[in-house]
Design goal:
22 strands, 427 residues, 5-stranded parallel beta sheet, alpha/beta, binds flavin-adenine dinucleotide, 9 helices, single chain
């Protein structure tokens, strides 16, 4: 150890990995940067739906992290954190060791709350998931079985979910792949969602996502149930309650299925949940406008683990999504703020939390830009077309290449974002 301050980044997913690169670049020789990660490799989560229909193999979307971190001069501890102790500036690891820090950046993503609904999820339940690449691999085998012996599909997002884009993506990708396999005519499909309307996305819609997504679903013969609460899942049967504006059950549905993928609600991971002053009751990290925790000011957070209040009341609870570009904006703000801290200045940078999203359907897709994420907005744009599919492939290749190179934002990316007026930090 050099005697320099130690910045620990906890979690090496989409946010934590590029945060380590960007922070190291920002602080240079003024601090050590160490990543603590449960997994030895980075997975590009947005490609999981493709893995689940065999359009991608797992290997193509993962990057072993130890070599690239070593090349960048970043410490890498491939052990899960058991508990964060922010009062002692310490992270206790699952193998009994501990790491102390001067600054902690929490990027632990979500814990998947399958256990909140009876029969939900791939761990002993009856529905598939695309949240983790290993779930997507299991889903791919189940999908092949369905295609060989067709029957009904139920896809969607349950009460309390905050991640809706991948549910639409997956429903429409399934439709595309089933048509390619020439069995779509034997697969009735139902989309079940806690959103109050199709295309709400936890954002009260962006541009005309309502019209665009309804039209896609209508033209592909996908029925839908909104304001849906999943009561329980049995083998091949989902019990769904449709909730009226007064909060009462308006209708009930018993949906048979041979294949189902439902996105769960998220909560904070166990290593941080229930720490007074650090997290909200669901275990998400409380942050101020500089991405720092108000109680423990040397703790910053980014990504899905951050607490963001819901958009407004809805008959069934829905959360606000934390999408890639928004997460990158948090990364950039934290890197700038840590540099200021180390220079003895007050952290002043604020992330824009702008949302730029591409939802791929295999043969087309819907793209949207929400600036800011919360309405009313200065930019509120959505469009659809075949180009979205190609743009998503380009985004995947580009992002994975960035992670392999150990770069967060090359100058040409910044230039391209400047041209379209998309900023990561507030001016
Ligand atoms: C299926 C799916 C598709 C998505 N597609 C898109 C998309 O197309 N575009 C978009 O903008 N957004 C998309 N998102 C949303 C978002 O970009 C992703 O969820 C993204 O992966 C979130 O990044 P993160 O770093 O916050 O969390 P994650 O990427 O989940 O990373 C968290 C990391 O922390 C690690 N970790 C957890 N607990 C511990 C612990 N105790 N100790 C050490 N490490 C720990 C985990 O192993 C993981 O590697 C998608 C989300 C999902 C679920």
């Amino acid at each position: 150890m050099s005697g320099n301050p130690n910045i620990v980044v906890l979690g090496a997913g989409l946010g934590g990995t590029i945060a380590a690169y960007e922070i190291k670049l920002a602080v240079g020789a003024k601090a050590e940067v160490t990543v603590v990660s449960k997994e030895d490799r980075f997975h590009f989560v947005p490609s999981n739906p493709w893995v689940a229909v065999n359009w991608r193999k797992r290997k193509a979307i993962e990057v072993p992290l130890a070599p690239v971190m070593a090349r960048k001069g970043i410490g890498f501890i491939n052990v899960a954190a058991a508990r964060v102790d922010p009062a002692a500036n310490r992270v206790d690891l699952a193998d009994g060791r501990s790491v102390t820090y001067d600054y902690l950046v929490i990027a632990t993503g979500p814990e998947l709350a399958f256990d909140e609904i009876e029969g939900l999820g791939p761990h002993g339940g009856h529905t598939q998931s695309v949240c983790h690449v290993s779930h997507a691999e299991t889903a791919a085998a189940a999908f092949d079985a369905l295609a060989a012996n067709p029957g009904p599909i139920v896809v969607g997002a349950v009460q309390g979910a905050s991640c809706f884009g991948p549910a639409y993506e997956f429903a429409l990708i399934l439709d595309t792949e089933l048509r390619r396999r020439k069995v779509r005519d034997r697969v009735p499909m139902t989309f079940v969602t806690s959103e109050p309307y199709i295309g709400h996305l936890g954002l009260d819609g962006v541009g005309d996502t309502k019209g665009l997504l309804e039209s896609e679903m209508r033209s592909r013969h996908i029925k839908w149930i909104t304001n849906a609460r999943v009561a329980r899942v049995e083998p091949e049967t989902m019990h769904v309650e449709e909730i009226a504006a007064d909060g009462q059950v308006g209708a009930t549905h018993v949906l048979p299925f041979k294949f189902s993928m439902m996105l769960p609600a998220f909560r904070g991971v166990e290593a941080v949940r229930g720490i007074e002053g650090l997290t909200n009751p669901r275990g998400f990290i409380l942050v101020d406008k500089h991405q720092r925790n108000p109680t423990f000011p040397n703790v910053f957070a980014l990504g899905v683990c951050v607490a963001i209040p819901p958009m407004g009341p809805t008959p069934v609870p829905v959360g606000v999504p934390k999408t890639g570009f928004m997460i990158e904006s948090m990364v950039t703000a934290i890197a700038h703020n840590l540099r200021q801290e180390l220079n003895g200045e007050a952290a002043s940078h604020e992330a824009t939390w702008n949302a730029i999203c591409l939802a791929d359907f295999g043969d087309g897709g819907v793209a949207f830009i929400a600036q800011p994420q919360i309405p009313p907005r200065n930019v509120n744009w959505a469009a659809s077309g075949k180009w979205v599919h190609l743009a998503k492939i380009a985004f995947e290749k580009y992002f994975i290449a960035k992670v392999k190179r150990g770069e967060s934002e090359p100058f040409y990316e910044k230039m391209a974002l400047d041209i379209i007026g998309a900023r990561k930090i507030k001016a």
